[in-house]
Amino acid sequence: MVRIRTRQAIIAYLTAAPFVLFALFPFAWMLITSLKQNRELYDLSQNPFLVHGGITWDHYRFLFEHTAFPLWLRNSTFVALVTTVVSVLFALLAAYALARLRFAGAESIATFVFIVYLVPTTLLFLPLARLVAMLRLSNTLWALVVTYPAFIVPFATWMLMAYFSSIPRDLEESALVDGCTRLRALWHIVLPLARPGIVTAALFAFTLAWGEFMYALTFISTTNLKTVTAGVVVNLIRGDVFYWGSLMGGALLASLPVVLVFSLFLDSYVSGLTAGAVKG
Amino acid sequence: MNITRRDFVRGAGIVGVAAASGILHPPRVLAAPRIQLLAHSSYNEDSDKAIEKLGKDFAAKHGAEFSADFIDQPEVAAKLTAEEQAKAGHDIVDLQDNLPTIHKSYLVPLDDVVADIVKANGDFFQIAKDSGYVDGHWLSLPWLGNAVLSVYRADYFSQVGEKTPETWEALLRAAAKLKKSGHPVGIPISQCEDANSILYPLLWSYGASVTDTRGRLTIDSPATHAALDYARKLFAEMEPTVLSWDDSGNNKYILSGRGSWTINAPSIYLKAKKDKMPFAESIEQRQPPAGPKGRFYYADIHGWGVLNFSQNVELAKQLLRSMYTEESQKVFLTLGQGYDMPVLQRFDANPPYASDPQLRPLVGFMKNAHLAAYPAAPDARAEKAYQTYVIPNMFARAVQGSSNKDAITFTVKALSDIGYSK
Predict the structure, then answer these.
(1) Is B29 exposed, middle or buried (CB count within 10 Å of its CB: 0-12, 13-18, 19+)?
(2) How far away is chain B from the Cα of A9, in angstroms, using its nearest Cα?
(3) What pTM does this model have?
């Protein structure tokens, strides 16, 4: 029995190993590159996977002392958090209505939401640019807070619709029979049960908002107001000279909050993703 | 007071509509006019500083405010498109090469500004006019040019007994020796701007071009076959990684100490010098090689356009005029270090960087330089061909095993899809 378990564990680890390596490779690459001295970065004869000439923190120092990187991080955090809260709130209400309430055109609306989700952000940014200017939000972080839900809400709505469908209606109907209002049933019965789904939707919303580039580039001009995705690329690529060390350092640091958030909510995330998969 | 749900919804709706239409915005306080400028970020940070200085000096004299935003060149198009859709944003924008012709509906004619500048200083170079003069009007005020030169390690060439290659054929001879010595030559044959800036002039130097002077497709010609044959031979002496280089690829290749020759803007030379690299003294620059039909020069031109939805058109024009005074040009060209070159003939006579022997080949460069549309006038098709790397793709196919016929057929199809015809 023990031998079987050991063998199963070995097979599991061996199967997972290539995927883990694949997932970790970009992080390792970013870390190694960000710690190399410029001289070594330019030396093509060196093994790119190793640091030969000694570790340097110059690229990180440059990032924090000569660019607005801390401000970009702060801006990204603000935009991603506010956008996540707003988007998940809207998506919750929309998903609940579409999954639970019976009204004319519910199915068509659900399909429409799905179609909206399929519209690429590179197309949406043109009409949204006009909207942002009309609201006089150009070159402010609010331009991003207002526009990001345009692509996050449809996605989160579909994700939550699937999750709500996996929660038995009987629980909610029992509450309604006992005199609960629809809103109280949603608050006290459905939402606690839907927590993993909400967490998953919030994680995706945060990740999408954190990593967004096109709107961040086009709606914000001032360097100090940029988010980290746009700031790093726009300020660390100058003509045909790339500040590789700082670029990699910036990318690595920028990816850490997302890693952290996923790590904190991993259990909820996994159960949220698998919900509805075996709906009977 | 009781508020019903209906009252609340109605009230919220009214407030929402009022906010969206601007009714609820606070009354505007009379503020100093503000000029906003959007430019590409130069390799040379001092170039950006020069523009900021000129703008701020002007603003201080005119009781105005000035701000400049610098972004990576490839991102300018998206930014510009968004601002045009919104009809709001910057007042003055950086327009490279063929962009004035693409954005002409949104640009204020600058004929009066150019007339004043030409009256005081003489004519612009033809390549600058090619870029800024569209449909009978100056839609962009040419500001600077970026040239490309042969950049090479003089020590490596002398080690193999070769001189600076004056022709593509001489380069090929040297390339074989340099490869054996462990320091191959390298030009990008990939989807990047540097590849465009090298391969268009290579085509021209063999007598080939995308179109004739009237814009009719002429790429399917014996001269193109000859250029592809040459590229195939040169590729055999280079490292295959040139097929994947981005704009930083040849910089890195030379600065790593491995590469011996490439074509690039002076950024390689200037960086080696600035960082005091041990081999900086060995990096030299000369005119790009000549082909059977002569030596051809490629340059990028950047000009200033004033957007027609700007609230400060006249002030923007005044700022542009002020950028062409003797003093302003001195500031700009000194800080530009030769990476940024003048487009007005007068200021090219003795620019501050001409005292450096390695930058001296830049003097007079613009007189003979062309944009990608050459020999036709710039248009949107030329920009699309440039942005989609049609010519580098043709060379990449040829050097990777496609026959000349297949590579050219592919290119004719790509150019026809863009709108070219015979």
Answers:
(1) exposed
(2) 41
(3) 0.82
Average pLDDT for B384-404: 96
> Are residues B184 and B286 both part of a single domain?
yes
Region of residue B142 (phi > 0: left; psi between -120 and 50: alpha; otherwise: beta): beta
pLDDT at B217: 96
Q: What share of chain B is helix, strand, coil (3-state, %, to 5)?
A: 50, 15, 35
Examine the domain organization and report whether B88 and B63 are in the same domain.
yes
Summarised one tens digit per residue, pLDDT across range B123-134 is 999 999 999 999
- Asked if B104 and B164 sit in the same domain, the reply is no
Task: Look at residue A105 in the predicted model and tell me its pLDDT.
Answer: 83
Which CATH number goes with the domain that contains B323?
3.40.190.10
Distance between CA B407 and CA B394 in Å, rounded? Answer: 5
Quickly tell me which residue has 């519209």 as its tokens: A119
Tell me which residue range forms the domain holding B409.
149-298+370-418
B25, B78, B256: residue with CB nearest A42:
B256
The SS3 assignment for B145 reads strand
Number of structural domains chain B divides into: 2
What is the third-level CATH fold of A68-274? MetI-like fold (1.10.3720)
Range(s) within chain A of domains with CATH label 1.10.3720.10: 68-274
Structure tokens at B243: 């097929």
Name the residue in chain B with its Cα closest to that of A222.
B69
Q: Read off the pLDDT of residues B26-64 as tens digits, 9 standing for 90 and up.
A: 445 567 899 999 999 888 888 899 999 999 999 999 999
Residue B164 and residue B133 share a domain:
no
Same domain, yes or no, for B166 and B205?
yes
The answer as to whether B254 is a domain residue is yes
**Interface probe, candidates A227, A240, A246, chain B, greatest B C-beta count within 10 A:** A240
Domain assignment of residue B185, yes or no? yes
CB contact under 8 A, A218 and B78: yes
The whole-number pLDDT of residue B7 equals 66
Query: How many Å lie between the alpha carbon of A91 and the closest alpha carbon of chain B?
Result: 20
Residues in a beta bridge with B300: B146
Mean pLDDT of A4-33: 92
Identify whether B4 is part of a domain.
no
DSSP state of B70: E
Q: Which chain A residues are Cβ-neighbours of B67 within 8 angstroms? A: 222
Distance from the Cα of A33 to chain B's closest Cα (Å) equals: 14
Q: Which of A130, A235, A242 sits opposite B85 (nearest CB)?
A: A130
CA–CA separation, B264 vs A241, rounded Å?
A: 12
Asked if the Cβ–Cβ distance from B72 to A134 is below 8 Å, we say no
The domain boundary, picked from B360, B381, B404, lies at B360
Amino acid identity of A54? G
Q: What is the pLDDT of residues A48-107, one digit of tens each?
A: 888 888 899 999 999 999 999 999 999 999 999 999 999 999 999 999 998 888 788 888
